[in-house]
């Protein structure tokens, strides 16, 4: 299949990852780390559709959470994810591990696709920066003022980690990948931040 041509993958079942070495899902695999995603992106750059399906299954849910946070419209968010994966298919060869983790790179692409769609909806009207949630900042207001105050008292790294983890439903490993930090660091930020939040809310 020529680079730049991508099928509609909205019917792909989440959670089933395709073997990067086969055009058929003969032995579905789990993408469990940054190095595996980097490996798959190299195959995608070479036009490997099986590898692309594995990347899609691994990242689609996370990218949809990002586009939903920006567009607040399911159909529009799904369209933005489709556009994001088309860009990932076309630009996989430009990914550089030295500049960030694969999921973070794809998240930026999804964010930009959603912003492009939002701008097209608004015509020439500029989108205010405040209207666009950062990838590691809550896309919604805290459920109560007290929680918002307590989050504001946390160190920035701890607050971003907690909000990103619970907003996007990330595991510790996925959080570490998104923020491009060691797994132990991500776990520490969440653990210490959660403890500080608990103490603040109970005070």
Topology record:
Elements (H helix, E strand, L loop, with lengths): L33 H12 L3 H23 L2 H18 L10 H20 L23 H9 L2 H13 L3 H8 L3 H20 L1
Helix pairs in contact: 1-2, 2-3, 2-4, 3-4, 4-7, 5-8, 6-8, 7-8
Question: What does the model show?
Answer:
The protein is mainly α and 203 residues long. It has a domain at 136-203: Winged helix-like DNA-binding domain superfamily/Winged helix DNA-binding domain (Arc Repressor Mutant, subunit A). It is 61% helix and 0% strand. It has 8 helices and no strands. The longest helix has 23 residues, at 49-71. The chain is globular. The termini are far apart.
Features:
8 helices, 203 residues, globular, Arc Repressor Mutant, subunit A, mainly alpha
Contiguous runs where pLDDT drops below 50 for at least 5 residues: 1-5, 10-32, 124-133, 135-141
Q: State the separation between the terminal residues, measured CA to CA.
A: 60 Å
Based on the coordinates given, report the CATH architecture of the domain at 136-203.
Orthogonal Bundle
Q: Quickly count the helices.
A: 8
Main sheet?
Answer: none
